User: What shape does this take?
Amino acid sequence: MIDPHDEKKLIKTVTSLITLLMLVILTLISIVFWMIFGSKNDSFSELEIQEIATVAVSIPSMDESTDLWTAPSISEIPEGEQGELIKYGKDLVAKTTEYFGPNGSVAHLSNGLNCQNCHLDAGTKVWGNNYGSVAATYPKMRGRSGQVEGVFKRISDCFERSLNGTAPDSNSREMKAMAAYIKWVGKAVVKGQKAKGSGIFNIAFLDRPADPKQGKEVYDAKCAVCHQADGQGQLNDVGNNYTYPPLWGKLSYNKGAGLYRLSRFAGYVKANMPLGASYNAPQLTDEEAWDVAAYVNTQDRPSLDLSKDWPDISKKKIDHPFGPYVDPYSESQHKFGPFTEIQSFYDELKKSKS
Ligand code: HEC
Ligand code: HEC
Assistant: This one.
């Protein structure tokens, strides 16, 4: 005979054991669920998925050169006053908006972009619109202004166009710091030479006009996840800097900026976008790069008075989309291409002059 008291005890033990077992199973199921679905909710794993998805299309390296420029190491920044200036300059390039943006600590001069948004890794990434050749090639004559420009003037240009704002005073410690940093980045390049891998890669022309319609498809599939469907980007949680910068609209670069030229935009994104792409692991075909450039650069953005630009119109870049020109091609062809015949026109012109 089992004592009824013992029986009750036994039932109680078995029930607790079953409850415990169910709890363990439930926990395991939740862990598995979280691993499969839960982590997708944060944007970081969205980034990883995006990168994996696009890497799968194998696109050959853009540049097989073995002697590409590389930036000096941060450990080479000298000690002392000059070193402090260079380091301050690097910080200004990386976090420009925290100093000069709408809530900037030094002044309110710019649209909220950082130099680094376009000059990647503080202007040190190979084919990432880096500053490699600036120290070696400035001061130089520039057709856009018709003047010999030094580094200060060139930095001011980006403040006025890419940052759609005003440049800090050339006597300010901030201007001196940015110039010191930019010159330090390019210190190893021989004076007068342009280093391979510096600036923006010139991607091959298409034999048709770039197409904004096809570009929208590229944009929605490969860019909107970060820059947003409306192109307005995304601020960080604090709201003082962009996690994903805007590509058009009133807070983007204006129509006088370098990226408004299709070849600059296409060459920049081909070697750098979607984020994670590089010249040796590009993620866009040439056609996708040109088409997405055409789409982004037909959206609304701020204007700029360009009437003083290109005092000698024969010096206009072939993809400068505003006439008049010395060649017979339309503004539309200068904006979207095809560019080969325009390029040939200027090659011939140069030959006939020399
Ligand atoms: C919206 C993108 C963008 C932003 C933001 C931007 N730039 Fe630029 N910058 C460009 C482009 C495009 C060029 C021209 C590259 C070319 O023609 O190959 C350029 C060129 C330059 C050059 C000349 C490079 C050379 O080799 O001739 C300097 C110097 C420069 N920028 C400095 C700055 C500084 C400093 C800032 C921040 C205050 C800044 N830029 C912000 C896009 C940008
Ligand atoms: C995974 C997120 C991500 C994707 C996808 C992505 N970008 Fe970006 N993009 C960024 C970030 C972040 C920056 C700024 C980089 C920095 O500051 O280091 C940037 C910068 C840019 C810039 C220069 C800054 C500006 O605001 O003008 C352009 C142009 C650009 N991206 C175009 C594109 C295009 C075109 C695509 C699609 C082919 C694309 N990006 C896809 C994250 C992304």
Q: What stands out?
A: Residues 306 and 314 are 16 Å apart (CA to CA). Strands lie at 140-142, 147-149, 234-235, 242-244.
